Amino acid sequence: METKLQCADCKRTFFPKAVAGKKPKAPDHTKVYLGFGAAVVLIVGSLMLMGRGGDKPVQRPVVVTDTKAAQLEIDRKARQDQAMRWARAVAAAEVMTLRNYSDMAELAKSLAVDASLVGDSRDQAIVAALSKNEATRLFSEMDCTSSDVPEDAVKAGAGSVTFYFSAKSGDTVYDAKAGAQVTSQWRMDGSQMRLGAVALTLKPVLRGRRDGDGAKTFAPSTEIAKPKAAETTRGGKVVKVAESDPVAIAHLADTPEPLRQKIDKLVQDVIASADPDSPGQLWGRATAEIKKIGKPAMPRLMNALHDLYPDVQGNNQKISQVTRSLLDITGMAFAYDVRGSGDAVKDKPARESVIRQWFAWWWRYANDDYQDAIDKEEDLDAPQKPKSDTPTKSK
Predict the structure, then answer these.
(1) Domains in the chain, start-ordered, CATH in brackets?
(2) What secondary structure does DSSP assign to 105-149, as a single string?
(3) pLDDT class for 376, splitting at 50, 70, 90?
(4) Looking at residues 87-94, what average pLDDT do you find?
């Protein structure tokens, strides 16, 4: 029986006789190489197909441009640029540019320029009025830094533009930390912007005396009767107040019809916000818009109080919302108690008194700057005192 042997190097077992005179064969890796090659070809082919998307060309992402939105922004910037040209013309008293960018008839009406004047005489009167008007004097006395035209006004081709102001460097009259805002109504005349009625919507803070800031008199409202002295209970104490009976209040004569419609809608939103099912931000949005409009909106808030006055108990929540807006806009508060004491006999006259106090206040400031009402004395008949750095007793 033959003996098997094992190779010390490769550990193979063999019979010595069977391999006598033969050389050992090298390992055959052909199958392994073929397997690796096939795998590489498969991977490369897959990558090529993925890159080409099969037989179709590679599709690049398509960027869609909203041409309407882009054009609207272009138009909006053009309106704001025209508004700033008008602002610079007001500051420099450039009559030619004013003519190009103004609705001179509406501007003259807004500035109370004599309606009988025409031509150059009217234009010169407008320039003179611009330098004295509480709103437009700011164009020369402060820096008009920018303007803003809402998108909806651009779409409509008419609306409002708001100008923003800051104190000039080194100025000692206007507070450098406080700005100011002026709103003007405008319309398109072809491709030309025409600005007209102006209003001071955010009054600057004064730190010094301006030219012409002497003692002033005022022209009271012709719609409201002169206030009478009365007594009411406030905080458990009997206090003396001024009251006028509520009357219907119309829009300011120079308020354009589109703005009138907008104001009336906003006032209705303020009233509607008293409904528990109304949108949560209705009162805030409406009041903010009214605040931007400024004085042209005030008569209609007062008129709302007139309409709600006959039933102060049933309209309690609505009256509260209107007086809240008046407080936010003017800084004046006449202590309207929406919660009440639960005693209708006491609550009804107290609530009616608050509304009458608002009408007494509007009698005084309907033809003046209502923002001057803050930090003024209780005597509504007193002429408006010159401004000073010494704070006065607040209401």
Answers:
(1) 68-202 (3.10.450), 228-373 (no CATH)
(2) HHHHHHTT--TT--HHHHHHHHHHHHHHSTTTTHHHHSEEEEEE-
(3) very low
(4) 94
